[in-house]
Each structure stands twice: as C-alpha cells, then as structure tokens.
C-alpha cells in the first residue's frame, strides 16, 4: 500500500464550526495569543488559560467531523494514511482515522504539572479545569497543549512519517507556525504534494511538485480522494 502522509491545520475543522487562528475574526483576533497560548502567559495568569481551554472544550464537544475529515478516513481503504495535525480537537479521531499524531497537544487531555507523563483524558461531563484542579496524586494540572515557547515532542515522529511518504498532502494551514510548517522540507524529492486551502499560503522555497487545490477542505478533500483513486 502506498503511504499518504497528511498535515492538517485549523482550516480542516473550520467547516465543523471551529474558528481558525489567523483568518480575520479568528481566535487570535479575539484573544492575545501570548496570554492564552504561551508558557509565559500561563505562568502569569493560569486561571485565564484554564478558562480559555474550558471554553474551547465546550465548543469542540458540539462539533462533528466534516467531509474533509471523513475523506481522509475513506482513503484508508486504498492507502496507508498517516495524519499529522496541528489541531487540538479530536475530529480526525471522531471521523475514524487510525493513525493520528497531534503536534500541538490535545484539548480533551490534561497533565500533571509535576510529572508530564501523567496525562489524563477528560470526559464530556467533566471537562472543566481550574488552578484548583488536582490529579490523583494531589498535584496541580495544566492543559495538555504545546504552548508557544515549548518544544514539540511529536515532531521527530512526524518527520519519520513524512520521510516515508509516497504522497504528501497539506490541508488548511497558514504555514506560519514552526516546526510544523517545516514538515514540507522533509518530503523526499519527486514526491507529489497537494495543498488544499481556499487561501493558500506561499509555499516555502525548496518544495517542488506542489499541486494547489484552492478550495475548502469539505470540497477539496473529496476531490482529491477521487483523483488519487483514479490513479490507482
Ligand atoms: P491558521 O489560522 O494560521 O490558518 C488557517 C488556514 O486554514 C488558512 O490558511 C486558511 O486559509 C485555511 N482555511 C480556512 N477555512 C478553510 C476551510 N474551510 N478549508 C480549508 N482551509 C481553510 O491555522 P494553523 O495554520 O492551523 O497552535 O495554525 C497553526 C497553529 O497556530 C495552531 O496549531 C495553533 C496556532 O497558534 C497552538 O495553539 C499551539
């Protein structure tokens, strides 16, 4: 089976009702990014950061995968599909994708501030956390999110996948945030690359063989599925 590696960003979840970050009216217009998504911000005002992610969780819970997420699941019938996502929602998992790697953490998880290997999954009826929340050992917890100023623990694994890709697909990301944006650089020369985004960013120098599908994920992904099937 050929290996398709897909790198997704906030755009793939937009049609499910979740705001992107940098489009106008996006999340970073409403909240100062360095207050709610950086390590400094969390140290300065942890209560605000807890509340920001409580709100994100409440929103995400109402959302369902769209034709973009579902199309990637469908591809598993013919390809070995690996999804690397910058998104913290769980819509790829809800769509049924089997191999999903989260680069920036997961909204529905929290972890101990004392031992980062102690990770807990929240349930829909218990998804709020605060500065007073304690884990089973009595230690304070934090969102299981990769804040700005923190390392991206899953990046090496992501690079490993990208290096093995026969086809590489980028969907709904402004290619602004590193190291996620640099994944393109690890694609083997000659590998076909598809980029689905209604407002695609400039492709970094060095990436070749890129086909841009200037459409929303809900339309562009089913189109790509048809195209890739027709080439089997
Ligand atoms: P951005 O908000 O920077 O970019 C969203 C991209 O999605 C843009 O290129 C839009 O054109 C595109 N888009 C909008 N609607 C779409 C649709 N229906 N279908 C397909 N594409 C669409 O989001 P990211 O690039 O994902 O990190 O942002 C990267 C990281 O920045 C996030 O993971 C987050 C943020 O700070 C953390 O919070 C750690």
What are its keywords?
three-stranded antiparallel sheet, 232 residues, six-stranded parallel sheet, binds 2'-O-acetyl adenosine-5-diphosphoribose, Rossmann fold, SIR2/SIRT2 'Small Domain', alpha/beta, 19% strand, 30% helix
Named CATH architecture of the largest domain: 3-Layer(aba) Sandwich
In spatial order, strands of the major sheet run 3-2-1-7-8-9
Number of strands: 9
Can you count the helices?
9
Question: Could you say which structural class the secondary elements and strand pairing correspond to?
Answer: alpha/beta
**Which stretches are poorly predicted, pLDDT < 50 over at least 5 residues?**
none
Radius of gyration over C-alpha positions, nearest whole angstrom: 18 Å
At the fourth CATH level, what is the homologous superfamily of the largest domain?
TPP-binding domain
Give the termini separation.
10 Å
Shape: globular
Q: Residue share in helices? A: 25-40%
Output the CATH topology of the largest domain.
Rossmann fold
Q: What's the story with the biggest beta sheet? A: 6 strands, parallel
Percent of residues in beta strands: 15-25%
CATH hierarchy, class of the largest domain: Alpha Beta
Q: Would you list the SSEs in sequence order as H and E? A: EHHHHHHEHEEEEHEEEH
Bound molecules: 2'-O-acetyl adenosine-5-diphosphoribose
Instruction: Provide the residue-averaged pLDDT.
Output: 96
- Give the domain tally: 2
């Amino acid at each position: 089976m050929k290996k398709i590696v897909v790198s997704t960003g906030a755009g793939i979840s937009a049609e499910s009702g979740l705001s992107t970050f940098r489009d106008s009216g996006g999340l970073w217009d409403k909240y100062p990014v360095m207050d709610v998504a950086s390590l400094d911000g969390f140290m300065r005002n942890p209560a605000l950061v807890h509340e920001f992610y409580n709100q994100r969780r409440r929103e995400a819970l109402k959302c369902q995968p769209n034709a973009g997420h579902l199309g990637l699941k469908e591809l598993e019938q013919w390809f070995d599909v690996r999804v690397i996502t910058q998104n913290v929602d769980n819509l790829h998992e809800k769509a049924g994708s089997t191999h999903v790697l989260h680069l920036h953490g997961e909204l529905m998880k929290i972890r101990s501030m004392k031992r980062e290997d102690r990770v807990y999954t929240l349930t829909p009826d218990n998804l709020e956390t605060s500065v007073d929340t304690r884990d089973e050992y009595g230690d304070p917890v934090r969102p299981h999110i990769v804040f700005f100023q923190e390392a991206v623990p899953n990046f090496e694994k992501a690079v490993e996948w990208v290096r093995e890709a026969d086809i590489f697909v980028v969907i709904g990301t402004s290619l602004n945030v590193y190291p996620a944006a640099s994944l393109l650089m690890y694609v083997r020369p000659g590998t076909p690359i598809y980029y689905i985004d209604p407002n695609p960013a400039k492709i970094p120098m060095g990436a070749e063989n890129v086909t841009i599908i200037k459409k929303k994920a809900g339309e562009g992904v089913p189109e790509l599925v048809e195209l890739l099937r027709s080439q089997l």
